[in-house]
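It is time I had a proper look at our fold encoding. Can you supply me with one protein entry, sequence and fold together? It will help me judge whether the discrete encoding reads sensibly. Leave the record below and I will have a look:
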Amino acid sequence: MIIRYPPASAFRPNGLGTVCLSCFLQGARPVSWSVRRNFSRTSNVQAALTGTMPRLRAGYFSANSLLEKARSNAKRGNLTSVIPEGSSIAAENEASKLPASSGASAPPPTSTQDLPHRRRQAARKAVAGADLVLPQNSSSTLSETAAQAPSNSIRRLIPVLLSLSKPRLSVLVVLTACASYSLYPVPELLLPSATDTPSLSPLTLLFLTTGTTLCAASANAFNMLYEPKWDAMMSRTRNRPLVRGLISTRGAALFAILAGLGGVTALYYGVNPTVSFLGALNIVLYAGLYTPLKRVSVVNTWVGAIVGGIPPLMGWTAAAGQSATHGDWKELLLGEHNIGGWLLASLLFAWQFPHFMSLSWSIREEYKNAGYKMLCWTNPARNGRVALRYSILFFPICIGLCYYGVTEWTFAATSLPVNIWLVKEAVRFWKLEGHKGSARGLFWASVWHLPVVMILAMVEKKGMWQRVWRAAMGEPDLDEEDWLEEDEEDAVLSAKEGKVKPEVRAAVIALPSR
């Protein structure tokens, strides 16, 4: 409606040019169609007013006079004083002052969001938001819990320290190390005479779990110490304890140092020095190389994948150290029987890419605004290719675990469906570059893929079910004397074939037969 202020000018002959036909009809009493038809010309309207046309009701324009007064008084900060009691505007003003708990029904305020095109825009944004795949952040949840507790209390300190350690990531690191520890092929593991033969020690497993947890907590705390400024720019990390000031920088640094020293010491004395070195290396790589490299180059993703692949190698090395001859790092890491540990490390290394590429895609704009160099926004096409490339690697890795005697050959068949599922989602993610829910599909496929593959590998560990069958059926196994007899027979056979020195050969042949 077009109205010239003040509204009273509408009643003057020269003021009707500012009133449109629709508004004029709403404010007048019903008139005949012949009169309405002539309203298109100003002269006819003026004639109607002076002659047969009824005059406009002044009450129709009363609201506009109120608005005019409100505008003039708003500059002086006295908006509500010009609104008379009993008017509709005063009623809305009073209703807006009611508390939310009063239950009084108030008319909804006029908003552009109520317009149809605004609703359509909101619906499109909701559909676009469905691509978000991030689960609830555990560190943020712990920070919320800590913020509600009294300051300088143990109720605040414990959740803050747990939040600094990134509990979900630390648990994943420990589980991969323990799974690799259990997959090490130790003979006679399930026999009653297992105490007389090399076996996996529960005490060693306890030290491995404790030390790995402390090393992971230390690396994560150092990570948060380095980047609170940029954590505040991202919705996923803005509730971390250092960002919210729930703990001082000095306190967080002290926790990171003590956790690192405790973890490395537990691994050194409770497991072996090689595992302790790997734990310290993981802290240095994650906190000293990966974290600052995030703002420099996309290579940071590959460094982070190496960090994720070290814990399975730690678990394998911890188990290998219990039956090693010398126990040095060359034997534990480069021995011919330790290829399985490197295969498990490569499995975790490859898994990082489909998981992180899909996860980072949903917050690519936040990574960009915070200055983190990630493929999800620097090169989305390559981001999808990398996720697909490393998803395909699971097929040869699973076959390699079977070939080198870590699992039975049936593992290659049972792991095939979940590997195909991951590759299928990775292909979709690559083609659509994360859109249309492809990032969400790949993310959840990766979340389920890792535990399923690890559980299948442990269930189908090489020789485990044969030993279980023999123990259940009561079939006899080779005891220590049988092992000695076989060793003597092998020695005699080697001596006869000339595979040993002459003096040793003469002594072996002279052994009395049993």
Notes: The chain has four domains: 7-84, 149-334, 362-474, 484-514.
